[in-house]
Amino acid sequence: MLDKLLSMTIDIISHEKITAAQLASKLEISVRTVYRYLDVLSSAGIPLYCRRGNGGGIMVGREFRLPAMFLTRDELDVTLAALSAPEVKNMNSAAQARDKLATMKDRRPSEAKLYYNENYVVDNSDEGSNVSLSDKINTVISAKHNRQTMRICYHDYHGATTTRDIDPQYLVYHDGSWYVNAFCHLRGEMRLFKIARITHMTLTGGVFIPQTNSKTYSFKMKPAPGKVNLTLKVTPEGRYEAEDWLGVENVKLSDDGVNFIADGIVPADESTYSKIIAFGKNAAVLAPPAVKQAVLKMCNDFISANN
Fold this sequence. Notes:
9 helices; 4 domains; five-stranded antiparallel β-sheet; 36% helix; SH3 type barrels; Arc Repressor Mutant, subunit A
């Protein structure tokens, strides 16, 4: 898995924009696996962005760069040899670069672990984006980079509001939402805070020593919903949305030669029903009947609440 993740990271950085289908084809994995790997890379601190629809694709923040130490010893050897080749035109610059790389090689352990650059920026500058959320995310990044303790006003899922001092360790992107994993002074332990639920942020003037980068959080806040085999009939206009959600390999041309049949295993919960409703007239539930009834009920409840 590690080699696939590294290859995917380099491919994304090397292109201004690349699609999940292109990555899947190059790495010989499924599109569903591509999206699973993207979640892993996002959790590792790489600022990835997915833009859907025509002309969309996967991009990485412009500020993100792989560190030079990302090279292995063998890769350094090849690079040094290339800089010594007679075909190099600017020998002075090549010599300086060669000396720098040679110094780096001498100081690098033979079995050094690979790591990712932690200097990154989140830019939610697309039209219609939540500017407030973008500002809060970048404030967290700045505090993390400078090891500054933050004071936040946090609204939890039960309606309670608390003021807490936190030491932000790293950002987590999960299921369309940004979180900060931080040491909470109030609770005396690591906690996960959804950034959209933070209303105020200030710096206390205190500084902190970073904790371990090991995973200390869980999104299992309630029992996981059951899974169902979903089948949709999708119009050509809804095809790309279905591919992004269920995977390109799971969306096939139907027998009528016009529409598409999309299949996938999805959670039997409101998040799934909401995604189906978002298709509007571009999708119809073929199976299972329980999902179709749940979608209709959600629509009827919305209509009743707004009459």
